[in-house]
Design a protein that fits this description.
Blueprint (H helix, E strand, L loop, with lengths): L3 E2 L1 H30 L8 H26 L1 E2 L17 E6 L4 E8 L10 E3 L3 H6 L7 E7 L2 E11 L13
Parallel strand pairs: 1-2, 4-5
Antiparallel strand pairs: 3-4, 3-7, 6-7
């Protein structure tokens, strides 16, 4: 399994890895050394927390490296040729028929998703349901075998890869 990511996604991950190695790792190493000097390591909560933070940083670096290694780099197509269909980075207003409410979302790559802020992955149930749809069309969002709902495409605002959009930390 691989993630489809853009060149911007890869660059952002590489920047984060560099920052974590050159800035965060030395700080965490110094904190680990400082807390080690407090004495008995079996009862040293500060030392245990410093070790946990160091492992968390190293884990994030490994995760990002694996994402880069296994990613399929995709080119963002110029969506102006097909203005009516939902594509990557478009802002889409959908009407959730079950909830009776409109919501504006932006279709992004998995790495930059943040549903709370309206950034929806193209691989998510909602994102994959609306991809390729046109204004006025309904899309079935299949969450799982027991839950699904329909959304109607109200509006599509053509978008482009926003380099300011951060990558997710989870």
């Amino acid at each position: 399994m691989y993630d489809e990511l853009t060149r911007v996604d890869i660059e952002k991950m590489e920047e984060e890895i560099k920052y974590r190695r050159s800035v965060i790792a030395p700080k965490l190493g110094a904190e680990l050394q400082r807390t080690r000097e407090f004495g008995d390591l079996s009862e040293n909560a500060e030392y245990k927390e410093a070790k946990r933070d160091k492992r968390k940083n190293e884990s994030r670096i490994r995760y990002l490296e694996a994402m880069i290694r296994t990613a399929k780099v995709i080119e963002v197509e110029d969506s102006s040729s097909d203005e009516l269909c939902v594509s990557l980075f478009d802002k889409v207003t959908v009407f959730n028929e079950k909830m009776g409410a409109e919501k504006k979302i932006q279709i992004v790559t998995t790495l930059r998703q943040n549903a709370l802020l309206g950034y929806v992955s193209k691989e998510s149930p909602l994102g994959s349901a609306v991809m390729g749809k046109r204004v006025g069309e309904r899309a079935l969002v299949r969450v799982n075998d027991n839950m699904s709902y329909y959304v109607k495409i109200i509006a599509i605002e053509k978008g482009e890869d926003n380099t300011e959009l951060p990558i997710s930390n989870y």
